[in-house]
Design goal:
The complex is a heterodimer of chains A (about 130) and B (about 160). Chain A is mostly helical. Helix content of chain A is about 70%, strand content about 0%. Chain A contains seven helices and no strands. Chain B has about 160 residues and is an alpha/beta fold. Chain B has one domain: Rossmann fold. In chain B, helix 3 packs antiparallel against helix 4 and helix 5 crosses helix 6. Chain B is globular. The chains are: A mainly alpha (about 130), B alpha/beta (about 160). At the A-B interface, helix 5, helix 6 and helix 7 of A face helix 1, helix 2, helix 3, helix 4 and helix 6 of B.
């Protein structure tokens, strides 16, 4: 639950804090230094209005969840950027979808009869890179 | 089962009847294991997109229709699903240093990546044959692995 709340919290923080649950439930992990006396729907507006407490609360809200999420994000990012097989399933699906209804090679040759040599184009491109 | 590593310069011959096309077709129709480097997808796609959206009229290109474009792309995708994809790895990139240190000169970075990928693949499949229509790549590859391991479909017409 804590993990989900942190994810929720991060998502919420990008726009606004939307509930008391986030503040109170996440509190043990995010170490809120000061929170509103009353858990009411006006908590958020109070945070904004109270120039003394708001910066502290916001700072503490961001510190720990952002750290954890940053780790998760970096782990995810590093695999995406370093694993040569990452996205292989996406590519396979794309190819399979594109391949549906593919014509036979004789039909392709009919289609490309008047085309220039594809090999020539490819090699020109390759050697002009 | 014979194994072939198809450079995109050879693979593209499958989609346009020209010198070497029948040989490439024979590879697809026989019981062979065909390999390709993942970057070949990009390189070949680019040719189709060039003819569809950016034909170089001064170089003899003709603009193709949407229907033609989709049909040929579909055939290409269908062929790839029957082949073994080799992914360019860090080891292959590291290995380009060895190729360059041996003073082998290739005109394009793609050739270098492809040759490196082929040489690494060959360490896993000793009998795999490189099939290419790129003369500069062929010359360097033959000087490293010998004439018999590298085929030019234009010289192998059946």
């Amino acid at each position: 639950m804590g993990q989900k709340l942190i994810m929720d919290l991060e998502n919420s923080c990008t726009t606004e804090l939307t509930g008391r649950m986030l503040v109170s439930d996440v509190a043990p992990r995010i170490n809120i230094e000061k929170r509103p006396e009353e858990n009411s729907s006006s908590d958020i507006s109070m945070l904004h209005q109270n120039s003394m407490s708001a910066p502290i609360v916001w700072l503490r809200l961001w510190e720990e969840p952002a750290g954890i999420n940053e780790i998760l994000r970096v782990q995810s990012r590093s695999r995406r950027l370093t694993d040569p097989l990452y996205g292989g399933d996406i590519l396979d699906t794309q190819l399979e979808e594109m391949a549906s209804g593919a014509p036979g090679i004789n039909d392709v040759w009919q289609i490309t009869k008047e085309w220039p040599s594809l090999t020539r184009i490819l090699l020109d491109d390759r050697h002009n890179d | 089962m014979a194994k072939y590593f198809l450079d995109s310069s050879a693979l593209t011959k499958r989609y346009k009847e020209e010198r070497g096309s029948h040989y490439i077709n024979s590879l697809f129709s026989g019981k062979h294991e065909l390999f390709y480097l993942n970057l070949a997808i990009i390189e070949t796609r680019k040719v189709f997109y060039r003819l569809r959206y950016n034909p170089q009229v001064t170089e003899g290109d003709t603009q193709i229709t949407d229907e033609e474009f989709n049909q040929v792309k579909a055939r290409f995708a269908a062929d790839l699903t029957q082949m073994q994809r080799i992914n360019l790895t860090d080891e292959m990139i590291a290995s380009t240093e060895n190729i360059l240190q041996q003073k082998h000169w290739l005109n394009s970075s793609f050739d270098l990546a492809l040759l490196s990928a082929y040489l690494i693949t060959r360490e896993e499949y000793l009998d795999i044959i490189l099939v290419s229509a790129d003369n500069s790549l062929i010359a360097v590859a033959r000087s490293i692995v010998g004439n018999n391991a590298v085929l030019n479909p234009e010289e192998e017409e059946v």
